[in-house]
Amino acid sequence: MDLNDDQLLRYSRHILLNELGIDGQGRLCEGHALVVGMGGLGSPVALYLAASGVGRLTLCDADQVDLTNLQRQVIHDTSSVGRLKVESARSALARINPEVQVDTIAERVDGERLAALVCAADVVIDATDNFPTRHAINRACVKYRKPLVSGAGVRFDGQIAVFDARDAANPCYECLFPEADEVEETRCAVMGVFAPLVGIIGSMQAAEALKVLAGAGETLKGRLQLLDALTMSWRTVKLRKDPACAVCSKDPVEIEVGTGAATCTTPLHTS
Ligand SMILES: [Zn+2]
Description:
By secondary structure, the chain is of the alpha/beta class. It is built from 9 helices and 8 strands. The site of zinc ion (ZN) has 8 residues, from helix 8.
C-alpha cells in the first residue's frame, strides 16, 4: 500500500521503527480489526488502533454509555451519557483519525452473525466481560483461523493472552477455560474495577493486535500474562493445547458457531 505525504507524517513515529517501517505501517492501514465490547478494555483498544491507522475497525456493543462507565471507559465522555457506546466511540475516533473506516454494530452479536464478522476480520479483540460471548468468539476464531487477542480485568486483577488459530499447534481459549467447567461469573456490572487496570490490559491488547496486523515481533500466543495491579506484579503462564479440547481438536468445518440470537442471554458488555 502506498502511503501519501500526510500519512507518512502522521505515522512517521511508527515508520521510524525498523520493526514496522513503511511496509508494516502499510499493513496496518490495510488491516481490519473486529473489537467486541466498547467498554473499559475496548476503549484503549479502539483509541490506539485508530490512532495507529488501522484501516478498518468494526466495533460491537449493544449498550449505551452510563455515568458509572466514565471512570474507566475513556473513549466516552460526559456528553456521551445515554448514547450508544459504538456511536460515542465512532465520534471520538473520527476526531482522532478520520482516515479510519469505523463500522458500528449496536447488537449483542453471537451465532452466525458473530462468525461472519470474525471471518471478515484480520484480527479479533475480545474486550467483553462474559464467558458465553468469549466462548462464541473463540469458536468462530478457531473455525476461521483468526488470531484472537483476549483480555480481562476486574478489581485489581488483569489478564491477557493471544490465541492464534492460524497455527493449529497453538492452544485456544477453550483449552484454557473449558466451557463445560463451572465458573463463577464475576461481572463488572457489580464488581469494582481499578480504572487504569483496564487501561493497561486494553493498551496491551492494542499492542498485540498491531503486532499481529503488521507481522512484527513476537505475540503473546501460547502465553497468559496475569497482572496483580495492587502490587504491580506480573506472572506468565505457558499455555498448552488440550488434545481433547471441545473446540480446537475438531476439524474447523465441524465447529458449530450457533444459529443466532437465542444462544447468549448475558449482556454482551458492561465492563
Ligand atoms: Zn482448544
